[in-house]
Amino acid sequence: MTVSEDKPDPVEAFNLLHKRIQNELYLMKWTHLRPIQVDSIKVIRSTEKHLLISATTAAGKTEAAFLPMLSDYLDEKTSGIHTLYVGPLKALINDQFRRLEQLCERSEIPVHRWHGDVTPSAKKKLLDKPSGILLITPESIESLFINRSGQLPKLFKNLRFVVIDELHGFIGNERGMHLRSLLARISSICRVDTRYAGLSATIGDLHIAKHWMCPDAPEFVASVTACSDEKEIRYQIKSFIKPASAVDLGSSEYESDLAIEIVNKFADKTALIFTNSRSSAELYTDQTKRIAKGKGLKSQFEIHHGSLSKETREFTENALRSDRPTIAFCTTTLEMGIDLGNIKEVGQIGTPWSVCSLAQRLGRSGRKDDEPSVMRLYLIEREETQDKLVARLRPQLLQAIAMTELFLQKWCEPPLAGQLHLDALVQQTLSIIRERGGASATDLHSTLAKNGPFRSVKMKVYVQVLRSMGTAQLIEQTAAGLLVLGEQGERIVDSYEFYAVFETPEEFKVLHGSTIIGSIYVDVDAQPGNHIILAGRRWEIVDIEKKSKHISVRPSPAGMPPMFEPSELGDIHPRIHEAMRKVLRDESIPVYIDQNCKRLLKEARYAAKAAGIQEDNVIQVGTGIVLFTWAGNRVTRTLSHLLRAQFSHSCADDGFCIEIQNTKRNRLLEHLRELREMCMTADDFCTILPAIDSGKYMPYLSDELRRLNAFYKYYDLNGTFRFLDSLLNKNS
User: Fold this and answer.
1) Is the pTM of this model over 0.85?
2) Looking at the chain, which terminus has fewer C-beta neighbours within 10 angstroms, N or C?
C-alpha cells in the first residue's frame, strides 16, 4: 500500500464520514474499511486535491471514492448535480447504479442514470430537479451538449466531483480526448472548483494518468495505490499442437480438442473465457454447447460480445449471476468491472494484446478475499513451421510468457502520449459550434487546445483542420468571420451516431422472427441458404433485405462463425519485445507452462541459438535478411516503411522483426547507416506516409493532416533512430 506518512487509522477515517453515512454502513453490517478506503476518505475529506485510486478488481475502489463524496453532499446539499460518475459502458453504469442505489436511497441522496436505455420520464425528473449523483457515459454527456445546452448551467453549476471509472480505458485514445474535452467544457460552466477521481485496476504510468486528469497541475493529484501481494494466483499456459495444413478456424479437430478441454475444466464452475475475436467466441460457444449436450451436462455455455443484442448480453450477465454454473465466452465487453457474481476461473484463448488486458481479465476471477485468481491461457500452435525462422521462434508463446513475467513484475503499458487526436478534435469543433450557434476560430482553439485537452494542436494546424472542414462543407464562415455548421455538418450533428467519437460499424441486423439476435457484416458472397453461427447458435439465412439492412434466419444444424469488423488492437510495447528476447536468451523454464509449451520453448531457443539471434539483430536467411528490432511495433513499422520508401526493399513487418527479401547483410547495414545520417525530421517523414483514412472524421481532412495524424499515432521516428544507433554501434 502506498500512502502518505501521516496515514490515518480506520477509526479516524470513519469519523471523517457524515453521521448518516456512518449509520448506514453500520446498518449494512460493514465490519471494517479497506486500506484504500481509509486513505481515499482522508484525501477527499481533508484536502482539496484530486484523487487517483489504483487497485485490483474488487478492492473497493467505488466505495473508496463515493463514501466521502456522499458525505460531502450531505454536508452541502446544494442544487444541481453534486457528483458525476462517468463509465465507459452502459452495463457498468447499470451495475454501479445497483451498488449505489441502496446506500443513496437510505441516506436520502438522489441517484440517477442517463443513457439510451433510461426512460424519458426518469430523464425529465432529473432535468426538472437536478440533484445528487448522476451516472453517465461520455456519449450521453455529448447528447446533453447537443440537445440540452440551455439546461447545462442548471445541471452542473455546483458540480463538486467527477468520478471516472476504468480510467486506463480513456487515456491515450480518441474516446478519452472526447471525454476530457467534455469535462473541460463542463468545468467552464461550474461556479465551484470541480475535483476529479480516477479509478483503475491497471494504470501503467501514474504520472501520465495524473497529467491526463489535471494537465496544468498533475502534482495536485493524490494517488492511493494498493497491491495484491497477499492474493494467490493460479495460472497456466497450455498449448494445443495442430498440423500446418489444418484449417485455422471453423472446422479443425484441434479447435474441438480445445473445446473438449474447456468443457472438462470449466463445466462445474462459473467462468469467463476470453477470446481475441468475436468469431472465435462464436465458434467455441457452439462447440462447447454441443459437447456438453452430448455428455448430458447441465452447465450453461453462453456468449457475450458487442455485436449481440442487448437482450442476449443481459441474458448472459444474469446467467453468470445465478446459482447455476455458467461459462461465458466473451471479448472486451466483460473485461471491465461489471459485477457478475462469483467468477471462479478465467480462460483466455490466444495471447491478449497487452499486459493491461491480461491483468484485467485475470482480475475478474477470485473477487473474494479468500479465493485465488485463476487463469488458464490456451495457445494453438502449428506443428510444422516449414523451415521459416520466425515461425520456429514461436512468437505467440514467447509473447505469452513475456507478458506473464511482466505482469508478475506488476508492470502495465503506459498510454501513448503526444498524439493529435484529430478525429476527436473535428467532432468537438462541430459540437461547440452547435452548442453556441457559432464561434470564431480563436475562441474554438482557446476552448479546445489552450484551455482544453488538445494541447498538441497548435493554431497553425488547427487552421488547416478548419479549412479542411470548410472544404468538406462541415462548416462555413459568415461575412462577420463567425464559423457555423455547413450543410454536411448539420446532417452529421443531427445524427444519433454523432454522440460517439468512435466509428460505429455498419452491420446488418439478424432476426429470427421478430427477435433481434445480433448484427453481422454482409459480404458480396452472402446469400439465402448460407449458414452462420451467432449468439452461440446455428442459423440458416432465409432472406437478406439490403435496403432495411435486415437478415432473416431460422435454426439450422449447420453453421460457420460470421465475419465481424476487426477491432483495432494497440501496438505491442517495446518492453514486451525486450522481454520476449530475454525469454529466448534464458535457460530457465517457467513453472506455469505445460509440457507442449516446454517442448516448443526449447525448440525455439535452439533455433534462436543456431541462427545467432540471441546476440545479433541482422540474420541472413537464404537470399534475404531477417532484421530483429525487439523495439515495439511502432519502431518496426517505421523502419520497415523507411526501407521500402528510400531503398525499395521488399519488406514484411512481423512486429518484432522485418523480413527483407533479396539482400545481403553488408548492403542492408549500408542502407541503415544512410538512413541514420539523413537526420530525417517528422515533416520529412510525413511526406512519404500514406494518407490513412481510418477514423470517423479522417475522410473529411486533407491528405497532409491525415499523414500528420498517422505519424503521431502509428510511427516512432525517434525510437527508430535510437535503435539504429545501438545496432550500428555494434556493427561499426
Assistant:
1) yes
2) C
